[in-house]
Specification:
The complex is a heterodimer of chains A (about 575) and B (about 950). Chain A is an alpha/beta fold and about 575 residues long. Helix content of chain A is about 40%, strand content about 15%. Chain A is built from 25 helices and 15 strands. The N terminus of chain A is likely disordered. Chain B is α/β, with parallel strands linked by helices and about 950 residues long. In chain B, strands 15-14-28-27-26-16-17 form a seven-stranded mixed sheet. The longest helix of chain B has 19 residues. The chains are: A alpha/beta (about 575), B alpha/beta (about 950). At the A-B interface, helix 3, helix 4, helix 21, helix 22 and helix 23 of A face helix 2, strand 8 and strand 36 of B.
């Protein structure tokens, strides 16, 4: 039905007023001046977005909407492009108009597995009870890579071991919140000990790239970030693609239970840097991007200092190694997500193929290595591949750095052969179990590697092999030892809560699967069929390893620990 | 060239072309795999995130998303099987777990639910929702057209790609992480308060209805209310010259939804006007009965019927009486005072057929060439320069060729507002690394994407463009071979531009010499460069000179006649190209055949059976002057609103009031109709059949979706009625017969028959005489000029007619807003558009506002030597210091009361873009009275 009345009336203004400004948030001149002052003469490159967000967050302790809009204008980005990145990372606090900015001081308490076992819940409760939320903010945080000194915390920029409520409150009162850099081998000492001779040798042709590759291959050096890909083969692949090539160092050591990279960088950073320069030379990478997680402020400070020292000493050209700071996102330990993050974006893993060796950072062929992998290069060349390979167990060449934590008497980074068993790690390297705790189960490879019962204490721990048959893996060699006082169901829930918090959210199986698993695990009665169905879709259809491995603990809980259900 | 590869799909050997994904091949093979995040439409990148399309690949540990995975030779792919089918079903179950029940959600017919039906998935409640009553999904109805219900969102990012990669409006982002991931507007702002331009691309892309049209929903914007449509009509958008193809959905004789169709100019995209501005046709203000001016209603220049009962001025009449009165008045003046007392304004909003009939009526029936339309106010100078330089007023290449160009210049145009869908191509090209050079005295959103943004001083176009020519000549960046073969007048141009070194012009135009040199080099040396311009170039007293400079740039560098190169004046109205082609201009018969040419005229005299006026007719502004002079006494105005669009509005309105007889045919009682003796209620775009020619030379078909309201009649029928009432003898069986007659007279439409048009919906003219295929790019082999060469015409500096002084210290410039179309007659009667931009505004730079001691949001007055208006002040960083911008669509703050009617000597176009003005704050009391 037509309802035209045909009045033929003339046009009148619409309801309401016209806007005082064009649509949307306008750029605030003051905020723009402040942002320009912070950015100074830095190039307004898109890939520096996260660095710029850090500049603002460090200065103003939050990211106000006004500053975000100003930064967007200054970088010729859309507001949404800036916001979506800022809101992806834990260490950025976006404060929109009308919202309250966080208080001056933040205490982060690690609630990942080893710290949970060491009482982080009580620590958090105690802190919350003892602080004024207007002055101090107490927040849960994922693994801080200090699992051997659990519970770990961070007050301001200071990392705290064996944290207690009183200790942290005292530090707050005394203003002990700055970075605490431990003593380490600096450039001079490292050079005095023959450091950077290898760099010279590869540069003057004494050691060729092919020789290096052969040595790494003979040594059996594998990627120690978790995937275990043979290092020499990786170099060959990257070299096979037309340049320009780039290199990245993955310092986003976020796998709960893992702290070896921090351990090395806080003691002997140049060994990794030298390995990196050698690797870059071998694949003719034009530049190295060192991506370091923001959870390690001391390491960041060390790297800042030592990279500058290398430039000053003329070992590297200005800007050859660019330090990039993470911002609180476990997923950026996944190499393609890390690359996205270096490009200044949300850390979403990329689809493969293509692999980053072919299409990596800024679309260029990219060699990516873990901190520890690079750490071994000098020793392998100097001492020979046989030396390295020979230290492993039969069929498991090489030396590994095991991050052992949990219910052992002497947790820490343990240098032990590849193929070692958990029993050996506990008894021979860690002084046995903590008094009163009986060995019940262990995580062979951090949160993702699954949970095995003590009855499987004879499994050689290495990439593939029997562990793989058990649907477990060694990953970053983070062994968390659980005892008869630990409920595997609680442990599983903690791990899944971690994955749910750290899922990037890109694909349905991981985004929804981790979140649903947590909800199901909280119920009194487990719907095992639903959990198994979730496990299947996550394992089969997730884009990256996070979602594919996240159900491992659930699988093992339902398989090996039925008494804990 | 990469060749096809062969792989095995479900046991069968199949071939994949380079770039094809497994999903593409499966679909081609008749097996469309489930897909949610993958929008299978032009411009959408597959993202592979929802995992609804996973398949099994032999030898791979995990399943692969078929939408993003390209097959390799010998690969064995299984689309069916327990693993992949279970994974897909679980994906749907996971997503459904967070959604409201189907009938409680925003769109129970969404692609999501459609797939659950097709896959036989029944939703269970074994998986808990991530939402709870305490933490529900976000519900945002702050946008007037679109409801956001994030409880139905599956975070597939289709909206993000729609906004950022397809339309490149860059408003939507994916905020948060993990299961908190959700689309956000700007910095997580309510949609209605964000920078969103309401193009609705996200709505069209969303597979769940999480972003959905309010017109289809209940009042709360939570559930779909319109379940079935009565019909879906394929048509074309009624607004700008882009010519987006649409599908119009109708329920109970009301348009309830408009979607973009895959037309050559829009590839499914639309803007806010095309998608949400359709409801003007349903306005209660539509004219539905013929009106005759009451004997006791005198005419006056300052008559204002805003808020007045029109029946105090008009009375309703029967069609018989109205037509008799209309025709009788026209015939009387013609017979008494002769053809020169007659004039007609047709419309660039009507169809080609209407335009053809209208000019035929004026020429054959009135006996005069006094017929014109608003092209005079838009691109007359561009057309003058183009006809002079390259022998054709049409574009040389479509705007979609921006995607093939290496360098794109956009000057004096704001396509983001005025040609939003064309702008998407420019932005996409820039995103792909093509050089985008924007030249405009006002800043604009497009500049964010530009490699070069030149905010030059208003009115200094020729200085800037001659400086570019200077560099090209001085540095020998021109294409000598091309010039020799295809261009005349190069020596004179060389001589002229010697006087314009960038170092000297920098101060004049406000752009550094180094930038000018860089731009000149970029344009000249790029493999393919193309120029787009708008009314910032044409609407000046030196508009023709501006266009001559642009033509010279293209001709001397050979940047024309190839794909990705050329000259493209972005035409304003949906059919301004077609109306001009059809002869709705005083100098030309259809196809720009000069009325003064003996041979042409005699051909038309044969066809139309009477002697025709050998003199060129008067143009729009000249007709107004001729009325004042007492020459023109009667007019027929169809679908045109010169009382709003002409410069120096009071002067123009006084002219219409002075007419002895004015017949206005329209769908609303426009400001022009206030002065009419007879008003004929006519057909809206959505009610009629006809063809429209867009800026790309694409002739497209508009189809009726709605019946006419009340007693309103088809425009073309009314023209025929009037013709026959003033002594002609026309007989057409339908629109197609009008088209046939017109096309037979127009070589440009050669080979494009009605059936072909209706069958293909869009045909680009001309067709190649050799291949019979459309020539998207013309001038490949010379130019349709007498000597086959492009003609260079040097241009000199000419200051704007009226420059700022002590009394009027500011520069007033006029133009459009995204939401409002032309004089606002249509768009201000659309609820959505009127809500977005409800009232007259004037925009100034925040610094300038401060300096003047004003406050954004207050009422100010803007005065020029011709008049004063009041408008609400808007702070806009894009407006340069010393300028005030006023859109001309608001009748309560009509910019054209202020503008300078001084004409460009060649194009006869007024200087809308520049005059001297004064702004003053209005006292608060005065504001309250507004």
């Amino acid at each position: 039905m037509n309802k035209h009345v045909g009045s033929g009336r003339a046009l009148r203004p619409g309801r309401g007023k016209g806007g005082k400004t064009p649509r949307g948030r306008q750029v605030d001149e003051t905020a723009l001046c402040e942002v320009r002052a912070l950015l100074a003469d830095r190039p307004r490159r898109r890939d520096l977005l996260i660095e710029f967000l850090h500049l603002i967050q460090d200065e103003y302790r939050c990211l106000s909407a006004a500053h975000l809009a100003a930064l967007a204008a200054e970088m010729r980005l859309a507001q949404a492009e800036v916001y979506e990145v800022a809101s992806f990372y834990d260490h950025f606090d976006v404060v929109r108009e009308g919202e309250t900015a966080p208080p001056p001081l933040t205490i982060r308490v690690c609630d990942s597995i080893s710290c949970m076992m060491a009482g982080s819940d009580a620590l958090i409760d105690g802190l919350k009870a003892g602080t004024d939320p207007a002055e101090i903010r107490v927040v849960h945080a994922p693994c801080m890579g200090r699992c051997d000194t659990a519970p770990a915390a961070r007050i301001g920029d200071r990392e705290v071991d064996h944290a207690t409520v009183d200790m942290l409150l005292d530090m707050a009162v005394n203003g002990e919140t700055g970075v605490n850099v431990p003593g380490y081998t600096g450039l001079e000492a490292y050079r005095a000990d023959g450091g950077y001779a290898l760099v010279e040798h590869v540069r003057n042709g004494k050691v060729s790239a092919d020789e290096l590759i052969a040595k790494l291959s003979d040594a059996g050096l594998r990627g120690l970030g978790g995937a275990g890909f043979p290092a020499g083969t990786k170099w060959k692949f990257v070299r096979s693609y037309a340049g320009p090539r780039l290199m990245t160092i993955n310092g986003d050591e976020g796998e709960p239970g893992t702290f070896k990279d921090r351990w090395y960088l806080e003691r002997d950073p140049h060994r990794t840097l030298e390995g990196a320069i050698v690797a870059a030379h071998a694949v003719e990478a034009e530049r190295i991007y060192f991506y370091m997680r923001d959870e390690y402020p001391a390491v960041l400070e060390i790297l800042r200092t030592e990279i500058a020292a290398l430039e000053k000493a003329g070992v590297i050209d200005q800007g050859f190694i660019e330090l990039r700071r993470g911002a609180g996102a476990y997923i950026c330990g996944e190499e393609s997500a890390m690359i996205e993050s270096i490009e200044g974006k949300r850390g979403l893993p990329r689809h493969r193929p293509p692999y980053i060796a072919e299409v990596g950072l800024f679309g260029q062929p990219t060699l990516n290595h873990n901190v520890e992998t690079l750490w071994w290069i000098r020793d392998i060349v100097e001492k020979g591949p046989e030396w390295f390979a020979g230290q492993g167990r039969e069929g498991h060449p090489g030396m590994r750095s095991w991050s052992v934590s949990g219910r052992v008497r002497e947790p820490g980074v343990k240098l032990a052969p590849a193929g070692v068993t958990v029993r050996e790690l506990i008894d021979d390297y860690c002084g046995g179990m903590v008094d009163g705790h009986g060995f019940k189960a262990y995580l062979p490879g951090g949160a993702s590697g699954g949970i095995l019962p003590a009855s499987m204490d004879d499994v050689p721990l290495d990439f593939g092999g029997r562990l793989a048959e058990l649907n477990a893996f060694v990953g970053s060699h983070a062994v968390v030892v659980l005892s008869d006082r630990d409920s595997i169901r609680d442990v599983t829930r903690n791990l899944l809560e971690f994955f749910s918090h750290e899922s990037c959210g890109q694909c349905t199986p991981c985004r929804g699967g981790t979140e649903k698993m947590v909800q199901l695990l909280k119920r009194d009665t487990l719907d095992e069929e639903a959990l198994r169905d979730l496990e299947a879709v996550m394992r089969d259809a997730s884009i990256c390893g996070l979602g594919q491995a996240a159900p491992n603990p659930v699988n093992h809980l339902l398989t090996h620990f039925r008494e804990d259900l | 060239m990469t060749s096809n590869i062969t792989f095995t799909l479900d046991g069968r050997e199949v071939a994949a072309a380079p770039g094809e994904t497994i999903w593409d091949v499966a679909k081609r093979e008749g097996n469309t795999l489930p897909h949610l995040c993958h929008v299978d439409k032009p411009g959408y990148r597959a993202d592979g995130n929802c995992r609804a399309c996973v398949v099994e690949i032999e030898g791979e540990r995990t399943l692969a998303a078929s939408c993003i995975r390209k097959p390799t030779g010998g690969m064995k792919v299984k689309t069916a099987g327990e693993r992949s089918e279970k994974a897909r079903a679980m994906v749907f179950e996971l997503l459904a777990a967070d959604m409201p029940a189907r009938d409680d959600g925003p769109d129970n017919q969404s692609a999501f639910w459609d797939w659950t039906d097709r896959m036989g998935i029944s939703v269970t409640d074994r998986l808990p929702s991530k939402f709870s009553p305490a933490e529900p999904g976000e519900h945002d109805i702050s946008n007037p057209a679109i409801a956001v219900n994030l409880d139905a969102c599956i975070a597939c990012g289709a909206c993000v790609r729609a906004c950022r990669e397809v339309q490149v409006n860059d408003v939507i982002g994916m905020g948060g992480r993990g299961h908190h991931s959700a689309p956000v507007f700007d910095i997580h702002d309510p949609m209605g308060l964000s920078t969103c331009v309401t193009c609705g691309e996200c709505v069209q892309a969303c597979p769940t209805g999480a972003l959905y049209e309010k017109t289809l929903m209940d009042d709360d914007g939570r559930r779909r209310a319109v379940q079935a449509f009565d019909r879906a009509v394929d048509s074309v958008c009624p607004f700008c010259g882009v010519g987006c193809q649409t599908t119009v959905y109708v329920k109970d004789d009301r348009i309830v939804q408009v979607d973009g169709r895959d037309g050559p100019a829009n590839e499914n995209r639309l803007c806010v006007k095309g998608r949400f501005g359709f409801d003007y046709v349903h306005s209660p203000e539509r004219l539905t009965k013929p009106l005759i001016r009451r004997d006791d209603a005198p005419k006056a220049a300052d008559i204002d019927l805003t808020g007045v009962d029109p029946m105090t001025v008009f009375r309703e009449a029967t069609w018989e009486e109205a037509l008799q009165r209309a025709a009788g008045g026209l015939a009387k003046v013609r017979d008494r005072d002769g053809p020169s007392a007659m004039a007609g304004f047709g419309s660039a909003k009507g169809s080609n057929e209407e335009a053809y009939l209208f000019q035929k009526l004026v020429r054959q029936g009135f006996g005069t060439n006094n017929v014109d339309h608003c092209t005079r106010l838009c691109h007359a100078s561009s057309v003058a320069a183009l006809l002079e330089g390259v022998g054709s007023g049409a574009v040389s290449a479509p705007f979609t060729d921006a995607m093939h160009a290496d360098c794109i210049i956009v000057i004096g145009a704001r396509p983001g507002q005025n040609h939003p869908v064309a702008a998407t191509y420019f932005k996409q090209a820039a995103k792909r690394g093509k050089k985008l050079i924007i030249m405009d005295p006002r800043g604009q959103g497009l500049m964010r994407h530009a490699s070069h943004a030149l905010q030059f001083k208003p009115g200094t176009d020729v200085a800037m463009l001659n400086a570019l020519l200077h560099v090209i000549v001085e540095e020998k960046l021109y294409d000598e071979q091309y010039v020799q073969a295809n261009v005349s007048g190069f020596e004179a141009l060389k001589e002229k531009v010697k006087d314009f070194p960038p170092e000297a012009m920098a101060e004049v135009c406000g752009i550094e010499a180094a930038v000018l040199r860089n731009v000149a080099r970029t344009y000249a040396t790029s493999e393919r460069s193309i120029i787009f311009w708008g009314m910032g170039v044409s609407q000046h007293t030196h508009g023709t000179d501006n266009a001559r400079c642009l033509i010279a740039l293209a001709l001397i560098t050979g940047q024309v006649g190839r794909q990705g190169t050329g000259l493209h004046p972005l035409r304003g109205q949906n059919n301004v190209q077609g109306a001009s082609d059809a002869g709705l201009i005083p100098m030309f018969y259809p196809d720009y055949k000069p009325v003064g040419a003996e041979d042409i005229r005699s051909k038309y005299e044969d066809v139309w059976g009477r002697p025709l006026d050998p003199q060129r007719g008067l143009t729009v502004v000249e007709i107004v002057d001729a009325i004042h002079e007492g020459t023109v006494k009667a007019m027929y105005i169809m679908g045109e609103n010169p009382a709003m669009s002409d410069p120096d509005q009071l002067h123009a309105r006084a002219a219409f009031a002075k007419l002895e007889h004015l017949v206005v045919q329209d769908i609303f009682l426009t400001e022009t109709a206030w002065h009419a003796d007879v008003v004929l209620p006519a057909s809206a775009h959505a009610e009629k059949l006809g063809t429209y020619t867009n800026t790309n030379r694409q002739v497209q078909v508009g189809r009726p979706a709605l019946p006419l309201p009340g007693e309103a009649r088809q425009d073309w029928e009314l023209i025929v009625e009037l013709a026959n009432s003033i002594g002609l003898d026309w007989s057409y069986g339908g629109v197609n017969e009008v088209y046939d007659e017109m096309a037979a007279l127009m070589p440009s439409l050669g080979g494009i028959g009605w059936d072909k048009l209706v069958g293909e919906d869009s045909v680009t003219y001309p067709l190649s005489s050799k291949t019979g295929l459309s020539e998207w790019v013309i001038f490949g082999e010379g130019f349709p000029t007498a000597d086959g060469k492009g003609k260079l015409v040097p241009a000199d500096l000419l200051a704007p007619d009226e420059v700022p002084d002590a009394d009027y210290p500011m520069v007033l410039t006029t133009g459009r807003l995204l939401e409002h179309w032309h004089t606002g007659a249509m768009t201000r009667r659309s609820d959505v558009l009127a809500e977005l931009e409800p009232e007259g505004i004037a925009a100034m730079n925040p610094r300038e506002i401060d300096r003047n001691g004003m406050e954004p949001g207050q009422m100010i007055s803007i005065a020029t030597r011709r008049g004063t208006i009041h408008a609400r002040l808007r702070a806009d960083r894009e407006v340069a210091d010393g300028m005030v911008f006023v859109p001309f669509c608001f009748n309560e703050a009509p910019a054209n009361r202020l503008t300078n009617p001084q004409l460009d000597p060649f194009g006869k176009i007024p200087e809308f873009k520049f005059c001297a003005a004064r702004v003053e704050a209005l006292a608060a009391g005065r504001e309250a009275a507004e």
